[in-house]
Specification:
By secondary structure, the chain is an alpha+beta fold. Helices cover about 55% and strands about 15% of the residues. The chain starts with a helix and ends with a helix.
Amino acid sequence: MFIFDDVLQKLHKVDLQRGEYLHISELKKRLSSVLKNRVKIDTGQDDTLDRYQHIMSGLYLEEYGKILLIITGSKNTKGVVFIEDLDRFKFCVAQIVQHEYVHHLQHMKRSELIVDDVFMCEKCTDHQRYLATYDEIDAYAYDVALEFRKYGWGRSDVLELYKREFTKNHPVLRRLLKKSYKKVELLNERDRSIDA
């Protein structure tokens, strides 16, 4: 269930430099060279992004059984992006792939994603409802665990997102934390077995 380290290792083979300016089509080409069988990469441009800024997101393409990584660059710079922190960039790519891989496994286990099955979220906004689905809580728990492992306990962008959306004692936030701690234990066990 855990492919993050494998993806990260492949990303270390990509010819990228810290502080490099790249067009998103070139970035796609370089990433595709190492992620070709597992991940389809799509690009786009957005005029709301600042110069040289980029955002990344992912989707699990159920009908193709593939993960889609979407890289969006600024229309203001015609899709040229600046990679300031190469380590963080590679971490985010691997994290997105891991997140979508969890959805792939959920799909394989059930034969379809259950997107309407929401955990304890009455009177929620659409975004809260999305975050409260069982599948998203499970996939985001891996994200939180990976961020805890990289940045230290309690330091997680994903956890901060959930804290902004749900009150401190909300069942969705508590469930995410509980699952995240279990994922950290799984990662630690996995690391110990590799070291042995």
